[in-house]
Amino acid sequence: MAHRLLGIKRKLKKHIGFCLCLIIVVVLGVLYVSHGENMPVVSHDQLDDQVICYKLAAENPGASFYEQIMGGQSAQVMAVTVPGMLLFYQLFVPYFAYALNLLLVMLVAYASLYFCLEILGTRDVLAALISFVYAALPSYSVYGLSAMGVPLILLAVLLVLRRGKIIVPVLLCLFFVLYSSLILAGFAICACLMFACIYEMIRKDKGSALKIAFLLLIIAATYICMNLDLLSYSLSNDNPSNRTEYRLTAEPFLLQSIWSFFLSGHYHASSCNYYLAVLDLAVFPLVGLWIFMRKKQDNITVHVLPLFKYVGFGLIFASLIAVFYVAFHT
Length: 330
Hints:
mainly alpha; two-stranded antiparallel sheet
């Protein structure tokens, strides 16, 4: 008994940063839920769309037609985006189901990224802080783990490749599929895993390629089973799409548009990144000049240079995303 208690004590000490930040995440969730029906919610694509779909599906199980919407609407058109989230709306009133779902998304995002960083060798406190900041990012929680839960798939891959585990990674993949959207995340996840398989085959590591291919098969098969109605509806020519009259408005490809998107971000992830982007652009050249002008590589430079490279990579990647977004609307 004493040996077990000692082991638990050592584990808690090793993951003290994880435990402290986990408590903060839970407290934030509890404070949010405590507002009840007065909690702040972004209405776009949530209160005016997804929450209604979940509520209708929960109140009308098995229905193929909803008479409450626009004088009658097909249940396929109003289908829920994330199958696993429907359970929340079947058990609780909508506002409480929404709040609990948000808390679950934050917890999964935090824990999955933390354990990914731990496997990759990041120190406990740093991994906890990075994971906490990630979990606190603004997101549309009505889409489940489609965005915030991506580290869960990375964790499954790392456990398979570095720890040799099978059952836990499969369970993680199944949970992600049940709690995410095929359209918003599934295709992209499958594509990334396929490229990872190809990469491992090029490296002539057939063992790793087969392990990733196994996870890919599990994810793809589960997505297909969970979205048979959606796939059949999409492939049928007899059913008109709800986007039949949807038209993209072409916009000119301007540097000003790229700059605006780089500073403001997408409206689905509105945040205060404007000030962070301006700070990065102001400090980054100064730090680069300081590194360039130093004659010798001392301990300070050795530690700052990798961080400088990572920030530079992040700025380049964010710029490419801005260029792609503006080009897509051209």
